[in-house]
Each structure stands twice: as C-alpha cells, then as structure tokens.
Amino acid sequence: DTSLEANVLIKVEITGKVALLTLNRSQALNALSSELMHELIAKMQQLEANPDIGCFVITGNSRVFCAGADIKEMQIKSCQQMIAEDYFSGWDQFAAIKIPKIAAVSGYALGGGCELAMMCDVIYAGDSAVFAQPEINLGVIPGIGGTQRLTHSVGKAKAMDLILTGRHMSAAEAEQGGLVARVFSDETLLEEALFAAQSISEKGRLSVALAKEAIDASMELPLAQGLVFERRVFHSLFSCREQQEGMAAFIEKRRADFSHD
Ligand code: CO8
Q: Which of 24, 29, 81 to mutate to test the pocket of ligand 1 (most atoms within 8 A of CB)?
C-alpha cells in the first residue's frame, strides 16, 4: 500500500532470516529526526525479539544513505535543553542491538549518517559512497560517537584530518582506511549486503552474538583482559548445542544445521 508506505520513516522487508530496513525520509535526505530514531529502534527491538531474525541490513537510497542529525530539529535548542534531554542518548539503544547490523551505504553518509553506519557492525559501501563528519562547519562536533568510533576505525591521524576539516572521504579511501569492510558497485551493493546477511543468519545465533561481543570488547579492554574474556566465552560455548552440532557436522562431513538453536 503506497499511501501507507509514504507515512513510514523506516521500511521493513523480511527475506528468510534477514530484515532489510530502508530509511524512507528522502525529502530531508534521510536526516535523523527523533521520530525516525524512535521508529527505527522500536522496529529493530521488535524484530530482535523474533528468533527467526538473524541479521539486519540498513540502507538508504542510491543518492543518500543519511545526511546526518536533523539540523532543523536541533537548531532551536538551548544547551540546557540538550543536557536535560541528554540529546542523542537514545542512539545507545541502537548500538546495543545484539543481532548483527550491516550498513549498506550508497551516496552521502554525513555526520550522524556516518555515525549511524559506524554503530553498525559492518559497513559495505557502493562506489558512490561519500563519508564525512562535517559538524565543524555547523559550529559543533560529532555527537553520536564520531570522535570515538571513527578514531578507532581509521586511527588518530585520519580522524583528526576528517573531523577538523569536515572534508569528504570516498568509498575507496574509507576502505583503505579501515572504515569500510568492502566496496561494491552501486548496482550490486544491496545484493551483496543481503547475501552476507543471509550467510550470517545461517550461523548459530549464540556464537554470532558472542563473537560480536568479543570483538566489541576489544575496543574497551586491555589485551590481557580481552584474551581472558574471549577464552571464557569460547569455553562457555561448549555447554551449547551449537558447538555440538557444528563439530558433529564437521566429523560427519555434512552441513551444520543451526536452525533449532
Ligand atoms: N538535517 C535536516 N535537513 C536536512 C539535512 C540535515 N542534516 N540535510 C539535508 N536536509 C534537507 C535540506 O534542508 C533540504 O530541505 P528543504 O528542501 O526543505 O530546503 C533537503 O534536505 C535537501 O537538501 P539540499 O537542498 O541541501 O540538497 P543538496 O543536494 O543541495 O545537498 C547535502 C546535499 C550536501 C547532503 C546537503 O544537504 C548537506 O550538506 N546537508 C547537511 C550535512 C551535514 O552537515 N550533516 C551533519 C549534520 S550534524 C550531525 O549529524 C551531528 C551533529 C552532532 C551535534 C552534536 C550536538 C550534541
């Protein structure tokens, strides 16, 4: 129903165990209004509760992934309001989603758009993708993790260069710098992202969630503690059916079936 679709900020399409979420606010270049944030998070939390969903793909349109936080919504706010609302803290719930999230980025991923992609677990880019943190041009700084996650991804030198100048970075540079996992042609981007998502969703749900948690922990923990955390998680998987099925399937020379976990 197109009349219904016109009022929806996030379109959801489910194929197998993969939920494709398309940002649908193209008249504002998919700017992240509070309304859009609430709708996106509510839909993802609802899908996460469904054991038949194993991976998310988040995308925009061919021209723009997302042009950032909603400048029109922010412009009129005072410092007191920003602090009282703890503006942007709602995005922590997006970052906390346990099911893997793949960002499929074509066109602009600016400011909060780049930060949205960085809150996903994997970023795939079409060759038209453009990444930037242009907040400095608005007299502010990134507010949804840009100074932290971009620095973790591309290192201090490039993060300083990008955030202080606000310049654009191409898909090729983003891949070379370590922000983007793989670059595809714009025409095949979504297909490739859905293919990877399908592959992830066929693995064991628990081992995927724990692998992701262990990688995320590497951003927070000193190496020695990170290694202990990884080993304990590894040990704990030996109490789960996934390990029994995965290893039995290898010995029996058949494909593992994790669908009952
Ligand atoms: N917010 C609100 N509306 C937007 C945004 C945005 N981020 N980006 C575009 N729009 C709107 C435009 O205002 C315009 O609306 P209208 O038709 O009503 O005039 C419509 O979308 C189309 O945009 P343009 O006419 O500008 O399209 P162009 O093709 O000429 O330009 C660009 C495309 C280059 C993407 C341009 O729109 C642009 O530069 N957008 C802003 C990009 C930006 O600066 N993003 C960062 C935003 S700030 C942020 O994300 C984090 C802030 C952290 C603050 C921390 C506070 C605690």
A: 29
